[in-house]
Design a protein that fits this description.
alpha+beta; 31% strand; Rossmann fold; 5-stranded antiparallel sheet; OB fold (Dihydrolipoamide Acetyltransferase, E2P); 2 domains; 396 residues; elongated; single chain
């Protein structure tokens, strides 16, 4: 696959106090964000959280209600999209059905370089400059198509392409005018699972070759965790956490992030502090006495949520009595859903030992991997974060 030559450096993006309101409805609330040149940043969150609106503000398709946007050295808040030096890839591909792949890819150049009357066959035939520019556009379209592996399909129309091929045409069209920033709004959501995985890898390789700033919007946490060098989790128009995929998975800032990131989802268990540890529905959890002692004199709220990921639970001879309700076999792994002290738990195990619904077992927690959240506020209890290393050593 050829590498298209891009001449300009990547750009830094700064958002300062960005807010967006539609009438009385506030979609974004006082966002501050800096994105370094060449980063692959993923905006992750549920539908309606404001991530696509934020992308459209950066692109210039929407105007902020408050705040400023800088791309590179310029304040572009009041600039139209064509002056922002960005390219956007839409969820719907937005290809012109009557144009070939080559013409779809070169369309941004035609709009930028050629007045409308250059498109009139009789007039353009009389203008050597128009012919030369069209030839240059064609050459650049071929190079962009080669960069995404579509050079052999330049003559086809969009209706003759698969979903993955259409998406690659949209990527090539974004590349052709050499932008400093690529914006992608859920570009893989219309593809099937296998094609999503393949195209995801292609976009990662494209970013590695171009070394440009990529901002990618998705509600799929698998996409976010596998693609982004940095992931920003949003909810209700606010940033919940900004960090690497490992940060989000191993040290979630609050219960929302913990529950949104990870598959299978984290177990979030309502618990109460007890004198000797932590309790679920009046039952003190095995191992919680040592965990509570390791925390020292930390003050805890009355209502807690215990968070532990399914792979850090174990079924064995020790622990809480539980009954298995469901077994999901996933080849070399299985996910077991069970009830323990009235709390539903999911356990991720290898498939060496076969379990069945109705089996009675014992389940234990790896306390070095437990997170505590304030049930009322949802935030992660910071007194536990400083104990992580000592707890891992104590319970290893």
């Amino acid at each position: 696959m050829s590498v298209m030559h891009l001449s300009k450096p990547s750009s830094r993006i700064e958002l300062d106090g960005i807010a967006k309101r539609f009438g009385d409805n506030s979609v974004l609330h006082d966002l501050n964000l800096s994105i370094e040149p060449g980063e692959f940043v993923v905006l992750l969150g549920p539908s309606g959280c404001g991530k696509s609106t934020l992308l459209r503000l950066i692109a210039g398709l929407e105007e902020p209600s408050a705040g400023r946007i800088r791309i590179g050295p310029r304040d572009v808040t009041d600039f139209p999209p064509r002056r922002r030096d960005v390219a956007m890839v839409f969820q719907s591909y937005a290809l012109y059905a009557h144009l070939s792949v080559a013409d779809n890819i070169s369309f941004p150049l035609r709009m930028r370089d050629l007045p409308w009357y250059y498109e009139v066959p009789v007039l353009s035939g009389m203008m050597p400059a128009a012919r030369e520019r069209k030839r240059s556009h064609r050459e650049q379209a071929v190079k962009a198509a080669e960069a995404v592996g579509m050079q052999h399909l330049l003559h086809r129309k969009p209706r003759e392409l698969s979903g993955g091929q259409r998406q690659r045409v949209a990527l090539a069209r974004a590349m052709i005018h050499d932008p400093s920033v690529f914006l992608m709004d859920e570009p893989l959501s219309n593809l099937d699972a296998q094609l999503r995985s393949h195209t995801r890898a292609e976009i990662i390789r494209l970013h590695q070759r171009l070394k440009r700033t990529f901002i990618y919007v998705t509600h799929d946490q698998v996409e976010a965790m596998t693609m982004g060098t940095r992931v920003i989790v949003m909810n209700q128009g606010r940033i919940q956490q900004d960090g690497t995929p490992d940060d989000l998975y191993d040290a979630p800032a609050n219960a929302f992030v913990a529950g949104f990131v990870g598959s299978p989802a984290i177990n979030l268990i309502p618990a109460q502090p007890a004198a000797e540890g932590f309790a679920i529905n009046g039952h003190v959890l095995p191992g919680s006495v040592q965990y509570r002692a390791a925390m020292g004199a930390a003050q805890l709220p009355r209502s807690l949520t215990l968070g532990i990921r399914p792979e850090y639970l174990r079924i064995g001879d020790q622990g809480m009595p539980a009954q298995i309700e469901l077994v999901e076999r996933l080849g070399t792994e299985q996910v077991v859903t069970l009830q323990a002290h009235g709390a539903p738990l999911r356990v991720k195990l290898d498939s060496e030992v076969r379990y069945r619904a109705g089996d009675r077992v014992n389940v234990s927690l790896d306390w070095s991997r437990v997170h505590l959240f304030d049930t009322e506020g949802g935030g992660r209890i910071e007194t536990c974060r400083g104990q992580t290393r000592s707890l891992k050593e104590k319970f290893a």
